[in-house]
## 1
Amino acid sequence: MDYEVIICFETHVELHTATKLFCDCAVEYGAPPNSHICPVCTGQPGALPVLNKKAVEYCVRAGLALNCEINRNSRFARKNYFYPDLPKGYQISQYELPFCENGFLEIADGNGGFYPVGIKRIHLEEDAGKLVHSAESLEKAEHSLVDYNRACVPLLEIVGDHLRNPLRSIEQARMYLEKLRQTLRYIEISECIIEKGQFRCDVNISLRPKGSKNFGNRTEIKNMASFRFISEALEYEIKRQTEILDSGGEILQETRLFDEQKKITLPMRSKENAPDYRYFPDPDLIEVELETDFIEKIRTNLPELPDQKLKRFIEEFGISRKDAIILTRDKNVADYFIEGSQFAHDQKKYLRWILKELFKLLNEANSVITDCKISPRDFAELINFITQNQITEPVGRDVLSEMFQTGRQPGVIIKEKGLQIIQDDSALERIVDEIFGKNPEPVALVQAGQLKTLEFLIGQVMRETKGKANPNKVREIMLQKLSK
Ligand code: ZN
Ligand code: MN
């Protein structure tokens, strides 16, 4: 039978505030264990939480970027469960009245338009601590240690809406996650680095016969460590659920775990033994009332979103859609381009060199643009040396690679190494004569009409001059001499 796939994500995003959600402890990834803890975030009796305003601001910023309604009145609730990394025995989260509801995120629909993926709610909650086991798996561990540095770090939970334009394919699921991460980076509330646990995904998936209005039972797959694992887990689940439904079986509503080695999902817990969190409003925190001014100020100062930037690059800078998509994928790259473009005489060339030469160097060094030693202005100036015919492109590439290593300015490197193009035509003519003299056979071939061989001769001059000759000029001189 033909089935329709319905996919929804619950995404947890760590906000990069300076301090935790309800205390003054610093948020610092990789700090020594339990170096950023206090009575509040370790759940000592009598310690009282105080809400971090910046975290609320970031939450509202995300809500506005994701087209949500912002609730003027909001409330924190206790989500009760026991686990050693949760010192209070409950997590402060939101249940009724989250900060943001009824939003959407547009992804490309493949026909030049957009598909608005429904977002049910966005709420703010605290993260739990972290258990460190003495062996790789909990089963083999002799003991476990707990690090509370992460306890009470502000988390955003973004919940998809299975009733409003849910995701229908693995392809869409991937596009959604990438667009979501890109958007959250653009509004500068989180780096969203998956490896650091700053962007964590649970996914719900169910199947139903095509045309059916009822939803099938869904399974939830917890905590996946990469976009690739998410695709693989979904692929497996679609196959597994299809087989069960085809043979007349029933899908159990359950939580499953993805086995990264075997590429399969395994049951973790069923609906029957799902925890009952007994949510209730947190009596230590008063209801939050957001003033219109507070919300409007965030709206006014909302940074440019990916689609806006893409549109601007195409319209204002005349960049092709394909290049603009690559350029805007990472906000830092887009900003780098904008910063240097005002200094570049030839913006198209400047753009091509970023996309080709700079990306190549970054890839080879396994580095990112924020760690690049070349300032956007220096990069633009290097391109100006090329467009003004002061150095050749091959020399430009060498200079770029030295700039990349050392961060020195292009003008200094060019002057110091004497890399300027040979402007003196008579000097070039002498070199051409010399090359002709050394290569009588290729010269004869060119004279017999085999013009391909001319490239070889030009290459010899380039080698002789260490790339400092203008190849077009060399060609001109050669053709002139040969036509005599
Ligand atoms: Zn604390
Ligand atoms: Mn949560």
## 2
Amino acid sequence: MSDCIFCKIIAGEIPCNKVYEDEDVLAFHDIHPVAPVHFMIIPKAHVASLADCDESHAAVLGKILLLAPRLAREQGLDHGFRTVINTGRGGGQEVFHLHVHVIGGAGPRPM
Ligand code: 5GP
Ligand code: ZN
């Protein structure tokens, strides 16, 4: 996806503040954090949103969710964190490459 900003970050064409990387996923800090800690975990293989996932994405989705608490702890979120997946325009999604927001450090907030 040559016009996808997150694919460009994965390719190193746009810099990011990296949290974690392996062969399947990349995690990096959000450029506009809404809390003291705010990073995103994304699959390296482009998929537009959660609504575009199928069985073939099960492993990477599981990996991302299991990484969230580990990376959150490494970022100092010892008391918990929020995960957000915005899906589609109606869900507030702005970047159409699946990403899981991990947010914390600002105390509890209402949904
Ligand atoms: P969405 O609303 O799609 O769930 O969230 C997209 C997020 O990506 C936003 O929180 C926005 O701040 C972040 N973002 C957009 N462009 C960039 C970028 O170039 N670099 C980084 N690190 N974050 C970005
Ligand atoms: Zn992409």
